[in-house]
Input
Amino acid sequence: MTSKAFRGHCQDHHQHSTGLRAMEENADVSSHTEGLNVLPREHKPMEITNGHSTYKPVINGVVIGHNGKDHTNGSASFRSLPISALKQNGLLQSLAAGGNKASPTEDAEDAELEKAKQEWETLDNIQPALSEDSNPTPLISFNEALQYFQTTDLGDLLKNIQPTIRRTGLAAIAHFLFGPPRLHRELLEERDLVFAIAQCPVDNSQTVHMRVLQTINKRLIGTRLDCPRYGSHWENIGFQGTDPATDLRGTGFLGLMHTLYFVMDPETLPLARDIYKLSQHPTQNFPFCVMSINMTHIALQALREEALSKECNRRQQVVGVLNEFYVAAFLHVYQLWKTQQKTIADSGFVLKEVELFAKKNPKQMLRRLEVFLKERQAGGVPRGTSPDPQGQQPSPSLGERGAKAGAGQGSRAEELHFTGVCDLPPDMEGEARLI
Output
């Protein structure tokens, strides 16, 4: 074999080897592409021309060349692939058009993915609100709620009220001669309205009723969000269950009206929050709203027994006097509870003492409240609010038996069920006895 013939043979052999390597590379590329796209390949007969393979894999009807470029737009064959697959596979990155330069479509998809991810992370940080409506219920004032009852037909409720104590025999004669003065005739209608409200139950269909509940909750805990009609959140402000309506025995909606007055009047709101804070004390805690309802019951009893008639006649109003008397009774409970370190085990004795004292000394109760509010507005520390248990001696009306009972039951305070004047049956309302 001559040298010229030898060189020609080697050149043919080299071209043949190059063709075989190209066939193997195309086979690997097409096999890998098929595995990622999970799409069938279209097989065509393989031809070898001048030592090079003419075989080109076809995916979805598109012919892919040796360098992985599309003969149409350079990257259409991998347009349906997820972007994450392109990022994770080095071979597909090299096959994509433009080398390491991302196409405008891929940039847009990356931006959309990043935006969606940020929006999803934002959703995780949003706290769900205990709101039944997207718009918070507006607060309602005491006067607005009172006007609602003044313009509502309460005829059926007025038939069942008992505005005075029925006395017979010597008791009636003694009350007429030595008892408090009768309420002026022009005030009887206002007095009857009060007792009619005390007969009115909570009505979920009445917007005013729901606004009163929402306002009480918002003002006590300091939130602007609405809360559901039923739920354990009502227990947090001192109701005994998930429905405040079940605690209004003996006071009806008037129990909520007085609490509304307490938290909406700018002069009494600080006192209301102080009492609410004390009700959350680790050892001196008590149900705030249930205690408030008991204050309403004491005020109603004082009005029914005509203990407030003299003050009502002097001011020529009933509702205003009753509101202040309610706050004065609550203040008296607060001072006793805080200074004498009372607990829930002492609730019956405290309520009994406050009721007896309030009925006998209504003018003194109102005067104490007036002085307390003035001292608070002046920036001083009102008398009777010292937390020092030695700052005020226990009231004699509690008696030694009451003091011992309170001390003996202090360890079981959390297990006791709160009882007060509102738990008494109707036939005992004239002479309330506490358990």
Observations:
- The chain has a mean pLDDT of 75.
- The chain has 18 helices and five strands.
- Residues 184 and 313 are 6 Å apart (CA to CA).
- The radius of gyration is 42 Å.
